[in-house]
Specification:
- The structure holds 2 protein chains of 2 kinds.
- The longest helix of chain A has 16 residues.
- Chain A is an alpha/beta fold.
- Chain A is built from 9 helices and 12 strands.
- Chain B has a domain of 203 residues: MetI-like (MetI-like fold), CATH 1.10.3720.10.
- Chain B has 12 helices and 2 strands, in the order H-H-H-H-H-E-E-H-H-H-H-H-H-H.
- Chain B has a two-stranded antiparallel sheet.
- In chain B, a hairpin with a 4-residue loop joins strand 1 and strand 2.
- In chain B, helix 3 packs antiparallel against helix 4 and helix 3 runs antiparallel to helix 9.
- Chain B is flat and about 100 Å long.
- The chains are: A alpha/beta, B mainly alpha.
- At the A-B interface, helix 2, strand 8, helix 3 and helix 5 of A face helix 8, helix 9 and helix 12 of B.
């Protein structure tokens, strides 16, 4: 590694309009037992941006993503989404842990798509999409059903409403999962290696849905190994290795003319 | 069907193999032996005057037998409901991070699984000897709102339900816990990421999936419960077995009446097995074999519903 621990090499100066950031991570640390997985990560993502996290396995990408919606609790630093401190309430100079109910309210604004889809296997595609709107937002069944049909049509699955996840291909399941996350009308979408568990033939259909989402102005943070997607769609990329941001910036710089040796090495291996 | 492969049209498909199948002589011989033994046993039963077919026929639908059957069914259902509700409660307690709840659940299961059900039934039957009266009030203050004699409050039927239900809860708790543990961590994460609270996640996502694992052994538990109810005859639980025992202690037709009981227990457990099949099918949705057809049917229903709505 070319830089000392805890020091981001480049501060991510992706110029936004003078807008409040959607995600702001300040010196985020996270460890599992004795293992430090994140060692002071800074990250800023502005509304309507697509931000891609790259890096080797164990570099901390997925952990950072899971910290953003508080599936993992951070040990140090601060993490804000849409201006709210995630998982804690600040009273004077003291932090109080939030109850799961209040964390749930924060999470409802953040959609998440998992590597292994995690669809609810006992529900049909449309029931998967309707579950959270009807039970968390208490929308009426008819209203939620209409919206679910629209979302499933949007991801190209209008003819699969009544199918159970086990009857769908991996690519179809992942698209249902995207529709399920969108049904909560999130302000931010997190993608945790959404195409890594798919057959190569099925990767394209999921990436297409994600591209359309990005073009539609959704704020997205994507952990992926698809360099092509990053080059084409991302507004910003960051390479995480050893729990720190090694390099970050617009894809045109980071992925074409990387400054850091570590980035060059990673790209040469991924693109080989 | 194409008989010629498209890749190599000149070769054609070779003829289907017509081999002589293996002959299983052993199966034939064992079948003949077993059929002979079974026939001999049935023949000896049929011609045994102690079986007394006419007594069986006269008692099979006698009012005292039917009353016993109803009580047996009531006992089974009520005890299983108590067992299942208590089991879910105990399982969630055991899996909770709260050390007090965890220990209480563990101790409960330890006690009720560690003592014979017959002892527990007798215990509840004679609970009046432990506490003569039951008081409702504030402990250690002397304030009493009311009291009643235990033997009046807890009759044989209530004692039987308490014994069977509380015992079943301990066993059901372990089954439910196994079912809950079998649900993938990713399901919790997906539910949480959609903003679902802990309780909603449990009710909507985890328990329905756990049910698929829990139902088959719970079916066995129910069938086993139906037969265990016979034990409450030791406290005169007024069930089928109590009434049968009472009858043959007076008329000494022990064997025919025991056969009457057997016929009823067999009939009831058979009906339950059918019910179990439908329950398993319901909670196995999403995992079945013929889901494709079912999905098309649901899609059709949706289309007709929408067409109807558009007409209005």
């Amino acid at each position: 590694m070319s830089n000392p621990e805890g020091q981001p090499a480049t501060p991510a100066p992706i110029a936004p309009a003078s807008e409040a950031p959607m995600v702001r991570a300040e010196q985020v640390w996270k460890s599992f037992g004795n293992l430090d997985v994140l060692k002071g990560v800074d990250l800023t993502v502005y509304p309507r941006q697509t931000f891609v996290l790259l890096g080797p396995s164990g570099g901390g990408k997925s952990t950072l993503l899971r910290c953003i919606n508080h599936l993992e609790q951070i040990d140090a630093g601060r993490l804000y989404v849409d201006g709210d401190l995630m998982g804690y309430r600040e009273h004077g100079d003291k932090l109080h842990e939030m109850r799961l109910k209040d964390v749930a309210r924060q999470r409802a604004k953040i959609g998440m798509v998992f590597q292994r889809f995690n669809l609810f296997p006992h529900m049909t595609a449309i029931q998967n999409v309707m579950a959270a709107p009807t039970h968390v937002h208490h929308e009426s069944k008819g209203e939620a059903e209409k919206e679910a049909e629209r979302l499933l049509a949007q991801v190209g699955l209008a003819d699969k409403l009544e199918y159970y996840p086990a009857q769908l291909s991996g690519g179809q399941q992942q698209r249902v999962a995207i529709a399920r996350a969108l049904a909560m009308h999130p302000k931010l979408m997190l993608f945790d290696e959404p195409t890594s568990a798919l057959d190569p033939e099925l990767v394209g259909e999921v990436l297409d849905v994600m591209k359309n989402l990005a073009l539609g102005g959704m704020t997205m943070i994507v952990v992926t190994h698809e360099i092509g997607f990053a080059k084409e769609v991302a507004d910003g990329v960051a390479l995480l290795d050893g729990g720190v941001v090694v390099e970050s910036g617009p894809p045109g710089e980071c992925l074409v003319n990387p400054k850091e040796e570590r980035t060059k090495l990673f790209l040469s291996k991924v693109l080989a | 069907m194409a008989t010629v492969s498209q890749a190599a049209p000149s070769v054609g498909r070779p003829p289907r193999i017509e081999a002589i199948p293996i002959r299983h002589w052993g199966r034939w011989i064992s079948a003949v032996v077993i059929l002979f033994v079974a026939f001999a046993m049935l023949w000896s039963l049929w011609h045994n005057p102690n079986v007394d077919i006419s007594t069986i026929r006269h008692n099979l639908f006698a009012p005292y037998v039917l009353r016993g059957v109803v009580v047996t069914i009531e006992l089974t259902i009520i005890a299983m409901v108590i067992g299942l509700v208590g089991g879910v409660l105990l399982a969630v307690m055991r899996l909770s991070p709260n050390p007090v709840l965890k220990t209480v659940a563990w101790a409960y299961i330890w006690f009720f699984r560690g003592t014979p059900i017959l002892v527990q039934i007798l215990f509840w039957g004679f609970v009046g000897a432990l506490y003569k009266n039951i008081f409702v009030g504030l402990p250690f203050t002397g304030i009493v709102f009311g009291h009643a004699s235990t033997s009046r409050l807890i009759g044989a039927f209530t004692a039987a339900i308490l014994a069977l239900g509380l015992n079943e809860a301990a066993y059901a708790a372990e089954l439910v816990r196994a079912g809950i543990i079998s649900v993938d961590r990713g399901q919790y994460e997906a539910a949480h990421s959609l903003g679902m609270s802990g309780g909603l996640t449990m009710r909507l996502i985890v328990l329905p999936q756990a049910m698929r694992v829990i139902i088959p052994p719970m079916g066995n538990e129910t069938i086993s419960m139906l037969k265990t109810t016979a034990l409450v005859s030791v406290i005169s639980g007024t069930d089928l077995m109590t009434n049968i025992q009472l009858a043959y202690s007076q008329n000494f037709k022990t064997i025919p009446l025991l056969l009457v009981a057997s016929i009823w227990y067999l009939a009831m457990t058979s009906v339950m097995s059918v019910g179990q099949y439908y329950l398993e099918r319901h909670f196995g949705r999403g995992f079945g074999q013929r889901e494709g057809e079912a999905a098309e049917k649901r899609a059709e229903r949706r289309d007709t519903k929408r067409a109807a709505a558009n007409h209005v």
